[in-house]
Design a protein that fits this description.
Elements (H helix, E strand, L loop, with lengths): L9 E6 L3 E9 H12 L14 E9 L8 H8 L3 E9 L7 E5 L21 H20 L3 H9 L1 H4 L7 H10 L6 H8 L22
Parallel strand pairs: 1-5
Antiparallel strand pairs: 1-2, 2-3, 3-4
Pfam families: TEX47
InterPro entries: TEX47-like (IPR055308)
Length: about 210
């Protein structure tokens, strides 16, 4: 919807077993529009203008199995997605394209258990940083490949980037247990709330009282 000659969108959408994680690299205006659309509050006459700098967002969430869903239900559902990172003034992008991949659970794949200690107050920031850096590593690794090699690498992304590819159980834990990470609806409430900034000169300060000696 937003990708055109002036609003280039790059990134990667990974659909796991019942969660997803989405890296979006675009102008700040486009990223904001995408998040508002997930909340179902994007105005129909949204202006498509280019922002000065690129913005990267990494978001995660859970999704329903494919079936007919009303627009309102989908908006409500995706509004619970978590915002893991928003970085502005990005000098260079990690991805040179936008793509999506479905990661199937292998029949013989060993069960993955989340180490809850990695998400406690002391380790949460580092854990999320490593997750986001891993996704950027995937982008950097894919972006240097030729078109022919890129297709094969995307098909083998689960094995080629096994050490940095997020696991479904990890994303599910973030969604269900990390309550201090804002979701998209909370982001909208914070950044779209009307602001009424006032200059200090507009305030009437109390007249200083005379000091009697």
């Amino acid at each position: 919807m937003y990708n055109n000659d002036t609003e280039l969108i790059t990134g990667l959408l990974i659909l796991l077993q019942d969660t997803y994680i989405h890296v979006v690299e675009a102008s700040e205006k486009v990223v904001g529009a995408l998040m508002r659309e997930l909340c179902g509050i994007l105005p129909a006459n949204f202006p498509k203008t280019t922002a000065a700098f690129d913005t990267a967002i990494i978001q995660s969430g859970s999704f329903l199995h494919p079936k007919a869903e009303s627009k309102s239900n989908c908006s409500l559902y995706f509004s619970e997605s978590k915002v893991l990172l928003i970085a502005s003034d990005i000098t260079s992008r990690s991805f040179t394209f936008w793509a999506s991949r479905i990661i199937e659970l292998g029949v013989r794949m060993a069960p993955f258990y989340v180490d809850e200690m990695m998400f406690n107050e002391d380790n949460l920031e580092k854990t999320l940083s490593n997750l986001c850096l891993g996704l950027c590593t995937i982008g950097s690794g894919l972006s240097v490949l030729s078109k022919a090699d890129l297709k094969q690498a995307m098909d083998d992304i689960q094995t080629k980037f096994a050490d940095v590819l997020p696991r479904n159980e990890t994303i599910k834990y973030i969604i269900n247990e990390c309550h201090n990470i804002v979701d998209i609806s909370e982001w909208s409430a914070i950044y779209d709330e009307h602001m009424d900034p006032r200059d200090a000169a507009e305030y009437v300060w109390p007249v200083p009282k005379m000091i009697e000696v």
